[in-house]
Amino acid sequence: MNEKLAVGDVLSCLNTASTMITHAIEHSDNEQFRQLLTDSRNKMDSLKWDTYAIAKEKGYYIPAAPAGNADLEQVKTAISG
């Protein structure tokens, strides 16, 4: 497996795990357990960001172009309406 595929797989796994932890947080009734899960998800999100930065730096991931002002206004209008 080459590095590009490995980085992509890591990001995919981190995204899946983060989604699963979020689901567990939403359904947990124990405050201490919820906090433990929230802390774990926050660490995972930090790791995802670091991995994303590596992928972007190496050219493995090219982000979408930033939204323009017209796009932002359209979303604001849709949300407030």
List keywords for this structure.
single chain; 81 residues; mainly alpha; 79% helix
The biggest beta sheet is recorded as: none
Q: Ranges with pLDDT <50 over ≥5 residues?
A: none
**Domain tally:** 1
Element order: H for helix, E for strand: HHH
Total number of strands: 0
Mean pLDDT: 94
Radius of gyration over C-alpha positions, nearest whole angstrom: 17 Å
Shape: flat
- Please report the number of helical segments: 3
Helix content: over 70%
* Strand coverage percent: under 5%
> What distance separates the N and C termini?
48 Å
The chain-level structural class is mainly alpha
Layout of helices and strands:
Blueprint: H1 3-27, H2 31-57, H3 69-80
Helix pairs in contact: 1-2
Characterise the protein shown here.
By secondary structure, the chain is mostly helical. It has one domain (about 5-80). Helices cover about 80% and strands about 0% of the residues. The chain contains three helices and no strands. The protein has helices at about 5-25, 30-55, 70-80. The longest helix has 27 residues, at about 30-55. The chain is flat and about 45 Å long. The chain starts with a helix and ends with a helix. The mean pLDDT is about 95.
State the gist of this model.
The protein is an all-alpha fold and 81 residues long. It has helices spanning 3-27, 31-57, 69-80.
